[in-house]
């Protein structure tokens, strides 16, 4: 296209001020409750895009009327997309309980209600009500954590990675920390124990080998500049075969011989509930670790605990007080909503209520196979009663706990494997992700798979509705 013609088309593009005076501009403002500046930004983006298309000769003919209609239609689509929530409800049909990409633990109803109440009102976050004086947020739930874990003291930071960083920075800066080579783990987001230790200013002393570390490896590494022995629970992988690790009890004995360093155990997930009594995994219970004599322990709040994202630190009072006074404690502190959710989660563990029925994470991990099967059968029956577009099979399957927790543990489950007469599996899965609420599934052997272990009974009507929406296409 000649330069003269390009310039001619460019001159035909409507100026933004003209579009702002158009009735369609005013209608969109009213319908979507936008400010003029917001809508003008979307209009400018559309005009700019058309200008680029003309210059690149992707747009070679148009009428002013058609162009204006296209601009307003596309701007409206952008407005609708912008108005949608970025953080959306998701139905998790993957069977992975602590799905990191889907927010890990679902909170209990008690926690949700308490968060909402604290969020909409003022609270005593840093106020001592009885004394009428300034207080500390560290004290809000410390008594609950002490009771739940048997520790002398406790505090909370924003996640377990932050807990590790604070502990190393406050207690081992410019000093040596002994860690087994088999425990130098990397978790999600390339977070490595060795790297976080370097950032904290502590000096890593590696002992043993990848597969075997002996008690004498630790004993030989202890010296004058040793600040800490750190045991890292390898919660996101499992080494099998020719292996050996040193138990917590054995490391406590080393610590008791020499009182000049700290024994710190990072549990990663950390559990207050004994899943072993259900024959599930071999995760240590926090209370048992504290009772063994470990000085300080850290673990996540949003994994096996079943609460909000948080890093919980429990242990000896003198050490915890030292952490509370460190400058990083303010940098890494949690807000009122996290504390509210964690408070109610801990109260469930400590009350007469059954944690199995009140904490979604524990309930989903320990669900009966019969209950999952019945839920899947109800789904299949409901779908077949309303449409003949699907072919569904009920199959036995395997659920994962997820979140880097209990690697190698497989939970038997029931899965509905689904085919649609018009859409291949990838397309059907994509359409389900476009539903409200979003439905996330797995694909196996060209079938969409829905694992009912991670689907709440309250979500069943929305799940069925999502599959029936395919009839609109």
In words, what does this structure look like?
This protein folds into 3 domains: 80 residues, no CATH class; 118 residues, Aspartate Aminotransferase, domain 1; 246 residues, Type I PLP-dependent aspartate aminotransferase-like (Major domain) (Aspartate Aminotransferase, domain 2), CATH 3.40.640.10. 43% of the residues lie in helices and 17% in strands. The strands form 5 sheets. It has a 7-stranded mixed β-sheet with strand order 4-12-11-10-9-5-8, with helices on both faces. A 4-stranded antiparallel β-sheet has the order 13-14-17-16. It is globular and about 85 Å long. It catalyses: L-seryl-tRNA(Sec) + selenophosphate + H(+) = L-selenocysteinyl-tRNA(Sec) + phosphate. Converts seryl-tRNA(Sec) to selenocysteinyl-tRNA(Sec) required for selenoprotein biosynthesis. Its main location: cytoplasm.
Write the layout of secondary structure elements.
Elements: H1 3-12, H2 16-20, H3 23-32, H4 36-55, H5 64-83, E1 90-92, H6 109-120, E2 127-128, E3 133-134, H7 142-149, E4 153-157, H8 160-172, E5 176-180, E6 186-187, E7 191-192, H9 193-200, E8 203-207, H10 215-221, E9 226-232, H11 248-257, E10 262-268, H12 286-291, E11 296-300, E12 311-315, H13 317-325, H14 327-331, H15 336-350, H16 355-358, H17 360-365, H18 369-384, E13 390-399, E14 411-420, H19 425-433, E15 438-440, E16 442-444, E17 447-451, H20 460-468
Parallel strand pairs: 1-15, 5-8, 5-9, 9-10, 10-11
Antiparallel strand pairs: 2-3, 4-12, 6-7, 11-12, 13-14, 14-17, 16-17
Helix pairs in contact: 3-5, 4-5, 6-15, 7-15, 8-9
């Amino acid at each position: 296209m000649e330069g003269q013609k390009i310039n001619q088309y460019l001159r035909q593009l409507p100026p933004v001020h003209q579009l702002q005076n158009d009735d369609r501009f005013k209608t969109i403002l009213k319908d979507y409750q936008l400010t003029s500046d917001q809508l003008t930004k979307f209009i400018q983006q559309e005009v700019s895009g058309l200008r680029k298309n003309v210059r690149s000769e992707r747009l070679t003919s148009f009428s002013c009327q058609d162009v204006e209609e296209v601009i307003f239609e596309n701007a409206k689509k952008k407005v609708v997309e912008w108005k949608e929530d970025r953080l959306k409800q998701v139905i998790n049909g993957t069977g992975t309980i602590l799905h990191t990409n889907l927010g890990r633990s679902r909170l209990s109803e008690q926690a949700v209600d308490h968060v909402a109440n604290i969020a909409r009102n003022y609270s005593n976050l840093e106020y001592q009500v009885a004394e009428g004086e300034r207080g500390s947020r560290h004290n809000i739930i410390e008594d609950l954590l002490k009771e739940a874990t048997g520790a002398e003291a406790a505090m909370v930071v924003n996640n377990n990675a932050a807990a590790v960083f604070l502990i190393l920075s406050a207690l081992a800066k410019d000093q040596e920390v002994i860690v087994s080579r088999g425990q130098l783990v990397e978790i999600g987001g390339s977070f490595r124990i060795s790297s976080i230790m370097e950032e904290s200013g502590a000096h890593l002393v590696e002992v043993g080998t990848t597969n075997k570390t002996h008690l004498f490896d630790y004993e030989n590494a202890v010296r004058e500049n040793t600040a800490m022995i750190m045991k890292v629970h390898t919660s996101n992988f499992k080494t099998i075969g020719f292996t050996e690790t040193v138990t917590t009890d054995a490391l406590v004995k080393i610590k008791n011989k020499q009182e000049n360093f700290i024994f710190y155990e990072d549990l990663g997930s950390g559990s207050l509930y004994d899943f072993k009594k259900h024959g599930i995994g071999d995760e240590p219970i926090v209370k048992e670790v504290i009772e063994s004599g470990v000085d300080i322990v850290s673990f996540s709040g949003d994994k096996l605990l079943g609460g909000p994202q948080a890093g919980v630190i429990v242990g000896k009072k003198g050490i915890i007080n030292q952490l509370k006074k460190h400058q990083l404690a303010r940098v890494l502190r949690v807000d009122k909503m996290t504390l509210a959710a964690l408070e109610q989660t801990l109260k469930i563990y400590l009350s007469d209520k059954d944690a199995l029925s009140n904490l979604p994470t524990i309930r989903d991990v320990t669900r009966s196979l019969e209950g999952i099967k019945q839920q899947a059968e109800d789904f299949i029956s409901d779908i077949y009663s309303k449409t003949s577009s699907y072919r569904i099979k009920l199959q036995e399957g395997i659920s994962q706990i997820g979140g880097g927790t209990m690697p190698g543990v497989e939970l038997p489950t029931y899965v509905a494997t689904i085919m649609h007469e018009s859409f291949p599996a990838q397309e059907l899965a994509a359409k389900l992700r476009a539903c409200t609420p979003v439905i996330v599934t797995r694909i196996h052997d060209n079938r969409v798979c829905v694992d009912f272990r991670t689907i709440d009974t309250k979500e069943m009507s929305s799940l069925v509705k999502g599959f029936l929406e395919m009839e609109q296409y």
